[in-house]
Design goal:
Elements lengths: L21 E4 L8 E3 L23 H14 L3 E6 L9 H14 L4 E6 L8 H6 L2 E7 L5 H4 L3 E6 L2 E4 H21 L3 E8 L8 H10 L4 E6 L16 H12 L3 E2 L11 E3 L2 E2 L2 H10 L11 E4 L6 E2 L8 E8 L2 E9 L7 H10 L3 E6 L4 H9 L3 E4 L2 E2 H10 L27
Parallel strand pairs: 1-3, 3-4, 4-5, 5-8, 8-9, 9-10, 13-17, 17-18
Antiparallel strand pairs: 1-11, 2-6, 6-7, 11-12, 13-15, 14-19, 15-16
Helix pairs in contact: 1-2, 1-8, 6-7, 9-10
The structure holds iron/sulfur cluster (2 copies).
One iron/sulfur cluster binds next to loops.
């Protein structure tokens, strides 16, 4: 059984703690495995946030480094949560790794997760072992006919489902998780997004069902109509409607009414965010993806050793540099694996750069980008002076000549054939 810290320290579960205890959401989960008709993926998850672009995404290692600094700025930072900006269990590796690293650093804090519940079940045992004590599941309907007008599609076990089939699967998975979480001693909150004319008349049934399965508390959240979504023109629930919905839900279980609909990267007291955190987040997102203790070097795609001017796919070798007290020092030229070997080319490259914390190149395809990042190598796409890029790598400085990741189109300016680096 999970040993519960006192509820008084969780600002969302105890109204008295909201003015004294702070929380932070770590934005480590970018992907989502469902499509809610009220969500625009350019914005934060409506489950636990108000619309607004997440300031930055962090790797698990970056997230915990950020947390260490944040903890020195925020008094009584008692809750560490993951709430997107996608879904924690559409990104289970990142979510669990973040929890593991954070738990090792901060064993006394409360750990909290917010999910759509589709892929939660396989991870419940591990969450309990990690001493996650609070889980929120967003359940907008328990009737698949109503659910089918709320979810456009879901991706479950590598298949896409739509309509009633999608709603049946997600509702079944969500409901199954409640008793399993309770059996582990985890506090369960249910969020329901109130969609006038769609599920407002159905909330009592949701409340009754989740209460019968053991959920502890419910949070009825008025939908925020979001541009470019199926529900962009939906009416905002009126005050009296929300009052009525909460009144009927309350017949079945306790309600949370002070939810601030926090961003997926919120930090501070509820309703009084520590806004400096957003700048800090952006800075930590530029830091190494993994610990650099055993990665002293940086690799560079260059023709002559002065400028970053080669795309990864066309670089037959990379220059390797290291930082010294007297400046950056060239170490060697390292041959890259030959073209035409598919993914194994990039995996071999990642292995050969296992001692490098970053690579500077003029452009890179999506596949090698993902493989290198997964191996903990920060990929900086830029053109210009090598030293400027290396200062970004070693001193976490902004690199002026940096390119946006999607600014590079394969084949535009390299010798590639627009099929991606192979
Ligand atoms: S679960 Fe969250 S991120 Fe995923 S579609 Fe729904 S609101 Fe958007
Ligand atoms: S979104 Fe609501 S439940 Fe989540 S941290 Fe904010 S106040 Fe708490």
């Amino acid at each position: 059984m999970v040993e519960k810290p006192t509820a008084a320290a969780h600002p969302c579960f105890d109204v008295k703690a909201r003015h004294t205890h702070a929380r932070v959401h770590l934005p480590v989960a970018p992907k989502c495995n469902i499509s809610c008709n009220y969500c625009n993926r350019k914005y934060d998850c409506v489950n636990e946030s108000r619309p607004g672009v997440c300031s930055a995404l962090l790797s698990p290692y970056q997230a915990v480094e950020y947390l260490k600094e944040l903890d020195t700025h925020i008094e009584k930072l008692s809750v560490i949560g993951i709430a997107g900006p996608g879904d924690p269990f559409a990104n289970p590796e990142e979510t669990l790794e973040t929890m593991r690293l954070a738990k090792a650093q901060f064993p006394d804090k409360i750990f909290c997760l917010s999910t759509n519940g589709l892929n939660l079940k396989p991870y419940i045992d591990e969450l309990a072992l990690l001493n996650v004590t609070h889980v929120t599941i967003t359940i907008n309907a328990v009737d698949p006919d109503i659910g089918s007008s709320i979810y456009a599609w879901i991706r479950h076990e590598k298949k896409i489902y739509r309509g009633r089939a999608a709603a049946e699967i997600i509702i079944k998975n969500q409901l199954e998780c409640i008793p399993l979480l309770k059996a582990k001693g985890i506090t369960v909150k249910i969020n329901s997004v109130i969609l006038p004319g769609v599920n407002d008349h159905h909330i009592e049934e949701v409340a009754k069902m989740v209460a019968s399965l053991g959920a502890d508390v419910m949070n009825c959240i008025p939908v925020l109509p979001t541009k470019d979504t199926a529900f962009e023109d939906i009416d905002k629930p009126s005050g009296p409607l929300m009052k009525e919905v909460r009144k009927v839900a309350k017949k079945h279980l306790g309600l949370m009414t002070h939810c601030s609909r926090c961003r997926a990267d919120a930090a501070g007291l509820l309703g009084h965010d520590f806004t400096e955190a957003y700048g800090m987040l952006r800075e930590y997102a530029m830091r190494p993806l993994k610990s650099t203790d055993d990665r002293p070097y940086a690799a560079v795609g260059t023709r002559e050793g002065a400028l970053v001017n080669m795309h990864l796919g066309e670089a037959e070798s990379l220059y390797i540099f290291k930082q010294t007290p007297s400046g950056f020092q060239f170490i060697e030229e390292r041959v890259t694996p030959p073209a035409g070997c598919g993914d194994s080319r990039w995996k071999d490259l990642a292995d050969s750069l296992a001692d490098c914390r970053a690579i500077l190149v003029e452009g890179v395809g999506a596949k090698p980008l993902k493989i290198l990042q997964h191996a903990g190598i920060r990929v900086i796409q830029m053109s210009g002076i090598i030293d400027e890029g290396l200062e970004g790598v070693y001193y976490n400085k902004e690199v002026k000549a940096v390119k946006m990741p999607d600014a590079f189109k394969c084949g535009d300016s390299c010798r590639g054939d627009a099929q991606g680096c192979a």
